[in-house]
């Protein structure tokens, strides 16, 4: 139980090999809180001491030797397998957050961090929003949630094995809250949530639907990515069947099916509104009248001076209209469709649908202002109906074709008309 | 008890007449959750079986045979009477939501749904905001709350008779939350709420004030409509006395009176700020410089190309300044005055008053922009001090008179001056 | 116990001297709620009756004889001392709220309320935001929280002595919530909060860190003012040591130190973003193109037609860009740095950092619009590169120097260049 292990020392640090008993003696004094919690855990009861997870050597100048999820997985095999095939198992990966210690990584992604053929990391991350933050914000603002991939303690807490902690919806709330995905808030005020808080036997909480029977496959039954992209027909169909089977343990299947279909419809109609806004912004970009244009602001960490409105979109160093679009897509759209799947009318309608539609009005108003300013200002104006030269018109047409706003046929037809018009008139 | 009833079949569906015992046998398998809940209810104990509420026939292809409030009312007479004379009893009606199954309807409202002299419904709804939504959003976003009129299960849950459910503030929270009426949030962080959650015997929750002694007359003691309109002197006086009598079971009457008077004053001053904003928007409309003007956007479902700033105001297909006004009136104003009546300083002041006043600044700024744009653009300008023709000036004057911005006397005087000026100058 | 005391009567009112027994007899009928609560209190048990706190005479026409904190302090000496040397002890003072009954006041502040050499108060308050409110809003919106300075009942409730009330985080939530300082919300969804709500023995709530061992020195361990100003090196160092000593009862000291240092770094970087926005607004003011300019709107209660962007900033009677700055500084910045100290990723990043940065984009966009309007309008334009006269250029330079945007050296150099250019060219 107290065997001293010889370990490989990777860096230059003060390593001390201690026995488990020794850990406890010292930490009872240095970190009494942690020690007491561990003493009351089933780990302590089963003789799983400090060294089993942390190793028996550590750098005394470093405050917290990280325990990888993989380490937990040596004993908790099934949970670990389920976890790392689920969305939680790509917490860092999914947001292209800090990729250190990432599991299950696709080799083609290596170039995000390494020069070709080089083992030396150039960068540890590949999320544009993350790349714009200070290290303090990256750690405390981003990784504190995204580290779930590699840190079982994110949910289980660090040294307690009391399952009431990890089964509480409050534990999920730590990350699944806020403007971009208020799943906790929308459950709390849904029929399920309000009923569950009075009579837990009558209605489900987070785990009952998303981690049923203790499963760690949190992607169970979910047909969309966190950002609201469809997972494809095959995956979606399987996932929907999974969820309906679960719903049916309480509800008539037809009832559940109807409600989830309604949520699908809401997802689709809200997505269409987001796309409408996206086209407005793209059109202003094509016209060259975003204020400022990407070329006149700090470059996007990944896309340089390209306009970025997808999952890598920034909320800083952008124009006002893009910032409105960010809110619409990342906050309002998310509330509308996630609110619908969670059956929360206030999130679906007021925080979701109404905000999506009001922000669309804001975006239209700003587009109108920018066009007006383009007309009135001394700056070169590039508006469709006022394009000065045939070259400008051709360039505008090409941009629209390249981003898929018009088809190859439309492009060819329009281009021919423009070229014809360029011919000497007589 | 298990008599088979012959019923009228209105549509084309699979109707099956079953006995109560038969219901239970089949549903124990098909919808075990629901059946178990019912088995533990006082309904089951009293021998009130499935067929008593749902009837003994139903369309097996339809998931949920709706149980009307009126059906519950056959046994729960007093509760039903109280409910349907209260604001809850006009949940659909009040918002002109889906009016199917509406009780207590004024005959003059028939034309909302029927052509004259016709029994065929043309439309089921008469709420402009509802009419703009998809059926999925209408169901999940609107009716999920507004159905309270006709669905006792909205609060009581569907099959349990456990009164702890319906007495929990969480149950009220399902609907009474969010940007437009966060009564739950403002109670939760008020003196009453915070005290009640620690010592329920020392402070009231929702029901203690609004449904005292089990009454279902939720309009008890309330002097304003949900939208903040006064209910008139007579009703208000009665309601205030009701509430003060209740307050006095804990507080000195003079203390309660002073606090409610303060809330009245806050309601009045915030209403004045809303009116100030309204006049700014109306003035821009009169000048023809809203962007876009009602005539240049999809028609309002009820008012066509008229400007609508009242209870039927939309949050979509409007101009940016109207959307700001919507937020101010529907969200900020509501928080200020409802926060005051609920004695919540953060809602009254920060979420209410401060937002009302900041949004007023936003509205003024947008008005300034629109006037400036009107001046600078090539579009026809219709600004008071720059009105080109006497005809335009007369038209502007008339519009202001018609909407009550100026009195008959002012109109006559200004009009005479304008007409005089039109006379040949020499 | 029932001695009748002779007291000084300060005003003209109906004073009635009663014995404690008499109080109880009458109030059991008039205010039964309050009386019952008192009867169950340890005050009643110890024979501390109504008259001990309220006096044995009172104006029967006034509903609530206020009990000063000083009155409580006659028995609860240590608590009172701790309270009134802490930030709570300057609740009114700190916000320059209603200063009546203020303790510990600096004599130099007298001129806020009194003319020189005069004992007659001219004004009771010296908070610009407070001065703009109606008395109802001032009482219900401002003083309901700020009265904590002088009202122990703010937290303890009025007549109960049950300490479970005052120890509940819900009690703190009453004031420490909302857009400007959501400490309750950020604790509730932090690791500490979520853990504490399931296992109170494993994680701290408000009091465990901020009022440890029953101390009433709520400023314990805090290095910033509520508005985010540093308290100076000496105070900050002492406070940090205090807090780290406390953290160390659970955590390794190095771990806690690292986390608090990260929060410091986030505070610093967010402050820099706020300053960036401040300079944009100040520059527009110098150019004379705020819309409206301070001279064209109701005067600031303290600073008249000066631009005010500090702690005395208003949220009303300002321009749109100032209102954006108000939100950024008072709401977004506060969430970012307070979220960081409370270790809440969603508040630090999404509600804080992301909002700070998006509002900065909004501010830049509005600045761009105002500059464009300045160019295009008929109004006198005062833009740096287009300043018409040398006098205007000198004035702009002087304004920038006076508010510290440029150094004395820069000012002198630029001024000389301008003056040289004014000399006849040949």
Task: Give start-end ranges of low-pLDDT stretches of chain A.
Answer: 1-17, 94-105, 376-387
Provide the succession of SSEs of chain A: EHHHHEHHHHHHHHHHHHHHHHHH
Average pLDDT number of chain A: 83
How many β-strands of chain A, per DSSP?
A: 2
3D shape of chain A: globular
Largest interface comes to: A-B, 52 and 52 residues
Structural class of chain A: mainly alpha
Order of neighbouring strands in the sheet with most strands of chain A? 1-2
Annotation keywords:
homotrimer; 426 residues; mainly alpha; two-stranded antiparallel ribbon; 22 helices; disordered N terminus
Please give a structural write-up:
The structure is a homotrimer of 426-residue chains. In chain A, strands 1-2 form a two-stranded antiparallel ribbon. The first copy, chain A, starts with 14 loop residues before the first strand and ends with a helix. Chain A is an all-alpha fold. Chain A is globular. Residues 1-17, 94-105 and 376-387 of chain A have low confidence and may be disordered. Chain A is built from 22 helices and 2 strands. In chain A, helix 1 crosses helix 2, helix 18 (253-287) runs parallel beside helix 20 and helix 21 (390-402) packs antiparallel against helix 22. The first copy, chain A, has helices at 20-30, 32-39, 42-45, 50-54, 69-73, 77-85, 91-94, 110-113, 128-131, 135-146, 153-156, 163-167, 169-173, 183-188, 191-198, 206-210, 233-247, 253-287, 320-341, 345-376, 390-402, 408-422; strands at 15-17, 57-59.
